[in-house]
Amino acid sequence: MNRKQLAWIHHIHATVLILLLLTGISLYVSFFRTLFNEWKIPLVAIHIVIAIFYIGIMLISIYQAFLYGKKRAPIKKFNIWLFVLLFSLWLSSGILMYFQHLVPVWVRNNSVIIHDWSTWIVIPWILIHGYGHLFNVRIPWPNWWRGRKQVPDWISENKLGRRDITKSLLLFLVFLFLGGWIRWISPILSIPENEEKRRGYFRIYNVTNDYPRYEEEDWKVAIEDLNQVREELTMKDMRKLPWYSIVDDFHCVTGWSVRGVELRGIYLKNLLEPYYANHPNDIYVTVYSGDELYYDSFTISQLLDEEAMLIFELDGLPLKRSQGFPCRLYHPNMYGYKSVKWVTRIQLTAGREQGYWQTNGDYDLDGYL
């Protein structure tokens, strides 16, 4: 490639990288993620497509970039090495996140952290780099860093060899893992000793930007049988049923997990028995959220035989609004997107409905781990 072609590759690389960062940050920030859900824009799929395009650009240009930067100023070499490192981290962690069902929990959790931190690390550099180029502003880098003066002796005498670069990269990874690990265990450090300790933290995902607001005494759940006979149950009715506590690991399809969560509520088999007792086994259940948008469906055996629950408390405390207060579904063998929040309606049907994420995305209908 000549210099002009490399310049074009540089501009394409910058454009695709910005799109990748914008979609990635939108997935990370709850407000934007929810907004795209409301607009029915498949942000995850768009992010993956852009990432694949970015991989192609890097693979095409990486060798030529190294040749170009070999005799260039230190800042050029730094740019190349920085993005090669970040590309490696993004690619490896992204693959592990995509195939997270094939790897242990600790691998998928750390993959999410590495993916996030690699993004936050590069943002300041991109802002400085882009600001200087777009507005032709002279960034006060040292002249030797930009290649306009001879490298000082105290630096030239300690030029980095392969071993030094390897050590630096390993040190960088150690600090990256250390920072991610501290963030990962932070919920443990902030809870009293007598409470159930857990590993990880919840990322709150919704399909609307406003949480349904209920008072416990006003909340009701409607249950409809196959004959469309409807009955509404209150929290008082729920407390008449036996309550159970379980400690389980909560897994999200995006790759993160929270381990050792204490959940308390009622088993759906105890709640639904009067409504399905006189019906055949081939019936289905659709569970609706109070946000009036989200819902998901199950076979009757998935809820009854696999010990699905309606949850009212988490770690000994009532659910927060963002967690689905006062009631959410929980299935111990399925990903979190099957655990409908703010449950207000449970409908028995003769055929199975496609859930929200099956209609608006490519999520598996059963959602097993």
TrEMBL record:
InterPro entries: Di-haem_cyt_TM, OxRdtase_Mopterin-bd_dom, OxRdtase_Mopterin-bd_sf
GO biological process, one term: respiratory electron transport chain
Keyword vocabulary terms for this entry: Membrane, Transmembrane, Transmembrane helix
Pfam families recorded: Oxidored_molyb
Top-level taxon of origin: Bacteria
rRNA processing found in the keyword field: no
A GO-annotated cellular component: membrane
Transmembrane domains' residue ranges: 12-32, 44-66, 78-99, 119-139, 169-189
Boundaries of every Oxidoreductase molybdopterin-binding domain copy: 211-357
Listed name of the protein: Oxidoreductase molybdopterin binding domain-containing protein
Phylogenetic classification of the source organism: Bacteria, Bacillati, Bacillota, Bacilli, Bacillales
